[in-house]
């Protein structure tokens, strides 16, 4: 959670007095709007009627749909906070992922996901600088979008087809192949598997080849990781372990297994394209026969 600077605390006190709100409520909304790149917020606080959404110049939603007084109060405080954020912004906002998770009824409550944080890639004098702000490998440059979900952080670099994922103290770098990533999701419980959305629909993070872990190149970056979760994105991933040298037969078996996974992954993507009407049933069947012949 971002920590307020002295200037941030002063503004929270002033806005709280102006709008008759507690400092906790104003701080909550300040962080929510900062996470929304200064123009939107998803919030959950009792002084704002619980769950709600705000978008600058757009629609404001509160849990009590017909409480117009509450809606006006939310709009007023959000507009004031957005103006203060803009006045204290010291670098442009980086784009943010839209992230969702299952397991909570409201954004920001329980185990559910707070909105992906664009604030991670920007500087604002209302907050104390995060020493771990640029946590991804330096050679990747500046990300096009950043995000956070529970204990996982994301940074996307589409121009060099790279995705950095941080879990705990570990930083993983994935090859995004031809995916155009637009958001992330995390299934709560049962391993907390990580998925992302692209032009192919919802895809498991484990299908992307691992390039490196903590700056150390993976042994076989072309092989997709068979499992990934919020707690251990390398679970059961042979490319991130350090096994003894295998025989030629062992290498051939691994290469054949990786090839089979590529074929099955391609079939899944073709099935998604057929469901969306991009290819015909006949085209799908012809391609399927060709791919299955490679197994």
Automatic annotation (TrEMBL):
Question: What protein is this chain from?
Answer: SHOCT domain-containing protein
Q: Which InterPro entries match?
A: SHOCT (IPR018649)
> Low complexity: which segments have biased composition?
95-122, 226-249
Q: One matching Pfam family, short form?
A: SHOCT
Q: Which species expresses this protein natively?
A: Novipirellula caenicola
Q: Where is the composition biased (Polar residues)?
A: 250-259
In this chain, the stretch annotated as Disordered covers 93-128, 226-267
Domain annotation SHOCT: ranges: 267-292
On the tree of life, the source organism's domain of life is Bacteria
Q: What is the lineage of its organism?
A: Bacteria, Pseudomonadati, Planctomycetota, Planctomycetia, Pirellulales
């Amino acid at each position: 959670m971002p920590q307020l600077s002295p200037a941030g605390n002063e503004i929270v006190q002033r806005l709280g007095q102006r709008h008759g709100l507690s400092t906790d409520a104003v701080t909550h909304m300040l962080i929510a709007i900062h996470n929304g790149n200064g123009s939107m917020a998803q919030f959950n606080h009792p002084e704002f009627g619980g769950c709600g959404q705000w978008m600058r110049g757009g629609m404001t939603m509160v849990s009590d749909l017909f409480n117009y007084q509450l809606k006006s109060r939310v709009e007023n405080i959000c507009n004031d906070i957005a103006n203060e954020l803009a006045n204290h912004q010291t670098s442009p906002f980086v784009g943010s992922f839209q992230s969702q998770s299952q397991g909570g009824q409201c954004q920001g409550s329980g185990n559910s996901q707070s909105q992906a944080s664009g604030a991670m890639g920007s500087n604002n004098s209302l907050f104390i600088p995060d020493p771990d702000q640029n946590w991804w490998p330096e050679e990747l440059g500046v990300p096009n979008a950043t995000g956070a979900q529970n204990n996982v952080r994301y940074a996307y670099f589409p121009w060099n087809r790279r995705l950095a994922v941080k879990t705990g103290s570990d930083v993983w770098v994935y090859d995004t192949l031809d995916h155009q990533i637009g958001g992330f999701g995390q299934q709560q419980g049962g391993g907390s598997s990580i998925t992302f959305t692209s032009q192919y629909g919802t895809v498991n993070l484990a299908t992307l080849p691992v390039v490196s872990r903590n700056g150390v190149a993976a042994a076989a970056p072309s092989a997709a990781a068979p499992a990934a979760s919020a707690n251990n994105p390398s679970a059961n991933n042979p490319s991130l372990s350090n096994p003894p040298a295998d025989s030629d037969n062992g290498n051939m078996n691994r290469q054949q297994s990786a090839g089979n996974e590529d074929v099955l992954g391609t079939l899944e993507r073709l099935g998604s394209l057929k469901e969306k009407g991009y290819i015909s049933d006949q085209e799908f069947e012809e391609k399927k026969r060709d791919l299955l012949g490679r197994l």
